[in-house]
Specification:
With about 325 residues, the chain is of the alpha/beta class. It is built from ten helices and 14 strands. The strands form three sheets. It has an eight-stranded mixed β-sheet, sandwiched between helices. A four-stranded mixed β-sheet has the order 3-2-7-8. β7 and β8 form a beta hairpin. The longest helix is centred in the last third of the chain and has 16 residues.
Amino acid sequence: MVSQEFSPYPEAPALVIGAAGIDIVGRLRSELHCETSNPARIRTSFGGVARNVAENLARLGQPVVLLSALGQDQVGDQLLQQASQAGIDISAVLRNDARPTGSYLGVLNAKGSLEFALDDMRVMAALSSAYLKEHSALFKEASLVFVDANLSKETLRTAVSLARRARLPICADPTATGLANRLKPYLSRLRLITPNSAEAGVLCERDVDAARRGQAMEAAKYLVSKGVEIAIISLAEFGVCYATSETSGRIPAIRTEVVDPTGVGDAMTATVLFALLNEIPLDDAIRLGVSAASLTLRHTGAVLPDLTLQKLYDQLVI
């Protein structure tokens, strides 16, 4: 039922608004020792929540337009070239010469779990409310609007307003615990939200332990009580739980080797969006999302470059 009503224009481009940048991720070979250099495997790739979601959608065959801000630098040039080659419409991406292209630095432990991360997304301040209004025609031509919480409060307010005016589903990712509060004023307007357990805790103002299934389910139902239509909470190795006003459930994770967790949640989000746009029932859409997450976990980088719907079904064992 949810999937059939998800968007009035399912074949139109998805409008994805938020961060794009460069990821630098190091995986430690042994325990972390402070105040010295640690042996690690270090890789770089393009990232940013919105950019990751956009590329996953494009790889699956969904037309997608990216609205983001990049610096006037070589990294920005290379990112746009790769995004275009992946099938993303980059014509509305803003270039700004005052700040560098966004960057993310993540440190994984020897098991592949995130220890800590740093990000520099100052360039996102250039993606202003006025810039979105200048590109309001994109909202009129879209199937849905996806936002990440890297947007400023003013820009986020404008994105929601323009999407509502165009009668589009609004989907959001809280992005980080320090940014999740930016979405609180708009919960009643969201068709879909995809926090992890820590971000859900911020949104619900309560502890949400990924290992405690009941807490996560209550958090998903709480978000629905605040007006969210579909709440999906990622629980890492414990899978996902979800709720709507009509149903709720939990889907376990697929057992797999953990190579790099970067972008895993973005792969799930994009796959669920793609599935719902193509009228796949919600339970199956989330299972496909878990499949995408599992495939991305085994890949060194934020997006699986050969992602296809057939590959997702081949991986589907739940």
